[in-house]
Amino acid sequence: MRNIPVVTKNLLLVNIIAFVATWILQLRGLDLNDLLGLHFFMAADFQVWQLLTYMFLHSGFTHILFNMFALWMFGVVIENVWGPKKFLFYYISCGVGAGIMQEIAQFFSFYFTISAQDPTVGFGELFAIGHQLSTQLNGWTTIGASGAVYAILLAFGMIFPNERIFIFPLPIPIKAKWFVMFYVAIDLFSAMSSSGDNVAHMAHLGGMLFGYLMIRYWNNHPTAGYGRSNGRQFFDRLKENFEKRSQPKMKVHKGGTNDREDDWEFNARKKQNQEEIDRILDKIRRSGYDSLTKEEKQKLFDSSNG
């Protein structure tokens, strides 16, 4: 646990504590899922804050085991690349986004169920019917961190697309980008098939969708918000662009005469600057962007705009 970054560690602990508390309280006749689980918005027990709390509850040991294993496996890497603030913002936002997508999916499911019984029912009448059935709709409850965890998985695939990982039961490693696409395809197929397996496939896809849009925005706006440290690809491109700047610069002597640096001076200065940038990039990969000093951040910013 000492080597797990702070946000990932605390997310693991909160999920485990919530799981144990749910189990203990269930033995005493109190179900936390009724209070903190995400209910359908037409249900009597729906509360807006459930969009946040639902992602810390799990239905069983297997459910929490797989989610926490994936959070540990991929969250450690992503948090070390992005830093704790950006990672936490991404995790919570995608979890909330996953909940919103699940609510939308449940709304259409409710509409199709009612219209199958009475094709003349319109959207306006649907809310009146939902109000009448609000108590019965309490059974439509979503719990689990899967939406946020799937978003972390997507982030890993986008930042490290060619990184090879072993996935049981495949006998050979596959690239992360294919692994992510495989999971998207499975969830999309499962959601469309309406298999009734009690798995919130639309929440999984919703978390990935929100994550994809967020990462694309950060990549297109690298200086906006948390986008200053938008993953290893950005810093690798930064390093590549820095190395391409091989033309010697003009220097001005006090006498006002322009002259070019000789090859030895230029190469020595270039090597020194490159070593400094490499050190800063390595520090980001180890501890995240937020670990940089003000001077290091300025050095990195100057090199990217030079």
Commentary on this structure:
This protein is mainly alpha-helical. The chain contains 12 helices and 6 strands. The strands form 3 sheets. The protein has a two-stranded antiparallel sheet. Strands 3-4 form a two-stranded antiparallel sheet. The two termini are 41 Å apart. The relative contact order is 0.11. About 7% of the residues have low confidence.
Give, in order, the helices and strands.
Answer: HHEHHHHEHEEHHHEEHH
Cα(first) to Cα(last) distance is 41 Å
The unreliable regions are: 227-231, 246-261
> What is the β-strand count?
6
Overall radius of gyration: 25 Å
What is the residue-mean pLDDT, rounded to a whole number?
A: 79
Number of helices: 12
Shape: elongated
Largest sheet: 2 strands, antiparallel
In what order do the strands lie side by side in the largest sheet?
A: 1-2
Strand residue percentage: under 5%
Helix content: 55-70%
Return the structural class: mainly alpha
Short description:
The chain is mainly alpha-helical and 306 residues long. The chain is built from twelve helices and six strands. Strand 5 and strand 6 (258-260) form a beta hairpin.
List the helices and strands and how they pair.
Elements: H1 6-27, H2 32-36, E1 38-39, H3 50-53, H4 61-82, H5 84-117, H6 123-132, E2 141-142, H7 146-159, E3 164-165, E4 174-175, H8 176-193, H9 201-220, H10 232-244, E5 250-252, E6 258-260, H11 263-287, H12 294-305
Antiparallel strand pairs: 1-2, 3-4, 5-6
Helix pairs in contact: 1-4, 4-5, 4-7, 4-11, 5-7, 5-9, 7-8, 7-9, 8-9, 10-11
